[in-house]
Design a protein that fits this description.
With 224 residues, this protein is α/β, with parallel strands linked by helices. It is built from eight helices and 13 strands.
Length: 224
Protein backbone atom coordinates (compact mmCIF):
# COMPACT_ATOMS: atom_id res chain seq x y z
CA UNK A 1 0.00 0.00 0.00
CA UNK A 2 1.20 3.47 -0.90
CA UNK A 3 0.99 6.39 1.53
CA UNK A 4 1.58 10.13 1.17
CA UNK A 5 2.57 11.93 4.37
CA UNK A 6 1.86 15.66 3.98
CA UNK A 7 3.43 17.06 7.16
CA UNK A 8 5.58 20.18 7.60
CA UNK A 9 7.25 19.08 10.85
CA UNK A 10 10.27 17.32 9.36
CA UNK A 11 11.08 15.24 12.45
CA UNK A 12 7.51 13.95 12.71
CA UNK A 13 7.32 13.35 8.95
CA UNK A 14 10.51 11.29 9.02
CA UNK A 15 9.35 9.33 12.07
CA UNK A 16 6.05 8.42 10.37
CA UNK A 17 7.84 7.37 7.18
CA UNK A 18 10.34 5.21 9.05
CA UNK A 19 7.65 3.55 11.16
CA UNK A 20 5.29 2.80 8.25
CA UNK A 21 8.04 1.54 5.96
CA UNK A 22 8.98 -1.00 8.64
CA UNK A 23 5.40 -2.24 8.40
CA UNK A 24 5.62 -2.69 4.64
CA UNK A 25 4.12 0.55 3.33
CA UNK A 26 5.58 2.47 0.39
CA UNK A 27 5.87 6.06 1.68
CA UNK A 28 6.19 9.40 -0.06
CA UNK A 29 6.25 12.76 1.67
CA UNK A 30 5.36 16.40 1.10
CA UNK A 31 6.54 19.22 3.37
CA UNK A 32 4.25 22.01 2.24
CA UNK A 33 0.89 22.79 0.63
CA UNK A 34 2.29 23.26 -2.89
CA UNK A 35 4.23 19.98 -2.86
CA UNK A 36 1.20 18.09 -1.54
CA UNK A 37 -1.02 19.47 -4.32
CA UNK A 38 1.62 18.59 -6.92
CA UNK A 39 1.94 14.99 -5.73
CA UNK A 40 -1.78 14.22 -5.46
CA UNK A 41 -2.26 15.61 -8.96
CA UNK A 42 0.52 13.48 -10.42
CA UNK A 43 0.25 10.25 -8.40
CA UNK A 44 -2.34 8.02 -6.73
CA UNK A 45 -2.15 6.94 -3.09
CA UNK A 46 -4.07 4.43 -0.99
CA UNK A 47 -3.82 6.70 2.06
CA UNK A 48 -3.04 10.41 2.47
CA UNK A 49 -1.98 11.52 5.95
CA UNK A 50 -2.71 15.22 5.88
CA UNK A 51 -1.67 17.94 8.33
CA UNK A 52 -4.24 20.75 8.43
CA UNK A 53 -1.62 23.43 9.04
CA UNK A 54 0.80 23.01 6.12
CA UNK A 55 3.36 25.66 5.24
CA UNK A 56 1.93 28.11 2.67
CA UNK A 57 -1.61 26.74 2.82
CA UNK A 58 -4.28 24.62 4.47
CA UNK A 59 -4.37 20.85 4.32
CA UNK A 60 -8.13 21.19 3.99
CA UNK A 61 -7.57 22.75 0.56
CA UNK A 62 -5.57 19.66 -0.39
CA UNK A 63 -8.48 17.52 0.81
CA UNK A 64 -10.91 19.56 -1.30
CA UNK A 65 -8.70 19.04 -4.36
CA UNK A 66 -8.53 15.28 -3.72
CA UNK A 67 -12.31 15.06 -3.64
CA UNK A 68 -12.80 17.41 -6.59
CA UNK A 69 -10.50 15.28 -8.75
CA UNK A 70 -12.32 12.10 -7.71
CA UNK A 71 -9.29 10.51 -6.08
CA UNK A 72 -10.10 7.37 -4.09
CA UNK A 73 -7.41 7.83 -1.43
CA UNK A 74 -8.36 7.30 2.18
CA UNK A 75 -7.60 10.49 4.15
CA UNK A 76 -6.50 10.83 7.76
CA UNK A 77 -6.20 14.41 9.04
CA UNK A 78 -3.60 15.22 11.67
CA UNK A 79 -3.43 18.52 13.48
CA UNK A 80 -2.07 20.21 16.58
CA UNK A 81 -5.49 21.78 17.04
CA UNK A 82 -7.87 19.79 19.22
CA UNK A 83 -10.69 21.80 17.70
CA UNK A 84 -14.12 20.31 17.14
CA UNK A 85 -14.69 22.75 14.26
CA UNK A 86 -11.51 21.58 12.46
CA UNK A 87 -12.49 17.95 12.97
CA UNK A 88 -16.04 18.43 11.73
CA UNK A 89 -14.93 20.45 8.71
CA UNK A 90 -12.42 17.80 7.72
CA UNK A 91 -14.92 14.98 8.11
CA UNK A 92 -17.59 16.96 6.23
CA UNK A 93 -15.13 17.43 3.35
CA UNK A 94 -14.68 13.66 3.13
CA UNK A 95 -11.80 12.75 5.44
CA UNK A 96 -12.00 9.21 6.80
CA UNK A 97 -10.46 9.85 10.21
CA UNK A 98 -8.86 12.52 12.39
CA UNK A 99 -6.01 12.29 14.89
CA UNK A 100 -4.66 15.04 17.16
CA UNK A 101 -1.00 15.71 17.92
CA UNK A 102 0.77 14.41 19.85
CA UNK A 103 -0.07 10.81 19.01
CA UNK A 104 1.61 7.42 19.15
CA UNK A 105 2.76 6.00 15.83
CA UNK A 106 1.18 2.57 16.49
CA UNK A 107 -2.18 4.34 16.92
CA UNK A 108 -1.75 6.10 13.56
CA UNK A 109 -0.82 2.78 11.97
CA UNK A 110 -3.94 1.15 13.43
CA UNK A 111 -6.10 3.95 12.05
CA UNK A 112 -4.51 3.58 8.61
CA UNK A 113 -5.31 -0.13 8.61
CA UNK A 114 -8.88 0.57 9.74
CA UNK A 115 -9.37 3.04 6.86
CA UNK A 116 -7.93 0.50 4.41
CA UNK A 117 -10.28 -2.20 5.73
CA UNK A 118 -13.31 0.05 5.30
CA UNK A 119 -12.26 1.29 1.88
CA UNK A 120 -9.93 -0.93 -0.12
CA UNK A 121 -10.66 -4.20 1.69
CA UNK A 122 -14.45 -4.03 1.87
CA UNK A 123 -14.59 -3.92 5.67
CA UNK A 124 -12.51 -7.04 6.28
CA UNK A 125 -8.84 -7.66 7.02
CA UNK A 126 -8.88 -10.60 4.58
CA UNK A 127 -9.01 -10.31 0.81
CA UNK A 128 -10.56 -13.29 -0.97
CA UNK A 129 -10.35 -14.00 -4.69
CA UNK A 130 -11.74 -17.46 -5.46
CA UNK A 131 -9.40 -19.98 -3.81
CA UNK A 132 -6.87 -17.27 -2.87
CA UNK A 133 -7.09 -15.65 0.57
CA UNK A 134 -4.81 -12.85 1.78
CA UNK A 135 -4.67 -11.85 5.43
CA UNK A 136 -3.61 -8.19 5.38
CA UNK A 137 -2.92 -8.14 9.13
CA UNK A 138 -0.48 -11.06 9.20
CA UNK A 139 0.56 -10.51 5.54
CA UNK A 140 0.03 -14.21 4.81
CA UNK A 141 -1.32 -15.75 1.60
CA UNK A 142 -3.35 -18.96 1.44
CA UNK A 143 -4.64 -21.03 -1.45
CA UNK A 144 -7.31 -23.57 -0.49
CA UNK A 145 -6.33 -22.90 3.15
CA UNK A 146 -2.68 -23.84 2.57
CA UNK A 147 -0.10 -21.09 3.00
CA UNK A 148 1.92 -19.95 -0.01
CA UNK A 149 5.23 -18.27 0.79
CA UNK A 150 5.59 -14.96 -1.06
CA UNK A 151 8.28 -12.31 -0.95
CA UNK A 152 7.30 -8.81 0.18
CA UNK A 153 6.97 -7.51 -3.38
CA UNK A 154 5.07 -10.60 -4.54
CA UNK A 155 2.65 -10.12 -1.64
CA UNK A 156 2.27 -6.40 -2.45
CA UNK A 157 1.66 -7.24 -6.11
CA UNK A 158 -1.03 -9.77 -5.26
CA UNK A 159 -2.85 -7.35 -2.94
CA UNK A 160 -2.65 -4.62 -5.60
CA UNK A 161 -4.07 -6.96 -8.24
CA UNK A 162 -6.94 -8.13 -6.01
CA UNK A 163 -7.87 -4.60 -4.97
CA UNK A 164 -7.84 -3.63 -8.68
CA UNK A 165 -9.31 -6.85 -10.10
CA UNK A 166 -10.47 -6.68 -13.74
CA UNK A 167 -8.59 -3.39 -14.20
CA UNK A 168 -5.67 -3.25 -16.65
CA UNK A 169 -2.56 -2.09 -14.78
CA UNK A 170 0.38 -0.82 -16.81
CA UNK A 171 3.94 -1.64 -15.81
CA UNK A 172 4.48 2.04 -15.08
CA UNK A 173 1.49 2.22 -12.71
CA UNK A 174 2.53 -0.97 -10.92
CA UNK A 175 6.11 0.26 -10.53
CA UNK A 176 5.03 3.65 -9.21
CA UNK A 177 2.58 2.16 -6.73
CA UNK A 178 4.87 -0.50 -5.31
CA UNK A 179 8.29 1.13 -5.59
CA UNK A 180 7.51 4.84 -5.11
CA UNK A 181 6.79 7.94 -7.16
CA UNK A 182 10.20 8.50 -8.76
CA UNK A 183 10.49 4.98 -10.17
CA UNK A 184 8.70 6.41 -13.23
CA UNK A 185 12.11 7.83 -14.19
CA UNK A 186 13.56 4.31 -14.61
CA UNK A 187 15.03 3.44 -18.00
CA UNK A 188 12.80 0.36 -18.29
CA UNK A 189 10.39 -1.73 -16.25
CA UNK A 190 11.69 -5.21 -16.99
CA UNK A 191 11.95 -5.89 -13.26
CA UNK A 192 8.13 -5.76 -13.10
CA UNK A 193 7.92 -8.73 -15.45
CA UNK A 194 10.33 -10.69 -13.23
CA UNK A 195 8.25 -10.11 -10.08
CA UNK A 196 4.95 -10.86 -11.82
CA UNK A 197 6.36 -14.01 -13.41
CA UNK A 198 7.61 -15.22 -10.00
CA UNK A 199 4.20 -14.54 -8.45
CA UNK A 200 2.42 -16.35 -11.29
CA UNK A 201 4.73 -19.35 -10.97
CA UNK A 202 4.02 -19.73 -7.26
CA UNK A 203 0.26 -19.27 -7.61
CA UNK A 204 -0.31 -21.43 -10.67
CA UNK A 205 1.21 -24.41 -8.87
CA UNK A 206 -1.80 -24.39 -6.54
CA UNK A 207 -4.41 -22.12 -8.19
CA UNK A 208 -5.76 -21.03 -11.55
CA UNK A 209 -3.77 -18.54 -13.63
CA UNK A 210 -5.70 -15.34 -12.94
CA UNK A 211 -2.95 -12.84 -13.82
CA UNK A 212 -3.26 -12.22 -17.54
CA UNK A 213 -0.97 -10.23 -19.81
CA UNK A 214 -2.79 -7.58 -21.85
CA UNK A 215 -0.32 -7.16 -24.69
CA UNK A 216 0.88 -3.62 -25.24
CA UNK A 217 -1.01 -2.40 -22.15
CA UNK A 218 -0.04 -4.26 -18.98
CA UNK A 219 -1.60 -6.89 -16.70
CA UNK A 220 -5.02 -7.73 -15.31
CA UNK A 221 -6.37 -10.04 -12.63
CA UNK A 222 -9.32 -11.77 -14.26
CA UNK A 223 -11.05 -15.12 -14.74
CA UNK A 224 -11.29 -14.65 -18.49
Amino acid sequence: MKVLIAEDEVALQESIVKFLERDGFVCESASNHKEALYKIDLYDYDIVILDINLISGSGLDVLKTLKKEGKKSGVIIISANNSLDDKLEGLDLGADDYITKPFHLPELNARIKAVLRRGKYGGDSCLIYHEIKVNTESRQTFVNNKEVQLTKKEYDLLVYFIVNKNRVLSKEVIAEHLWGDHIDLADNFDFIYVHINNLRTKLTKVAANYIKTVYGMGYRLTEE
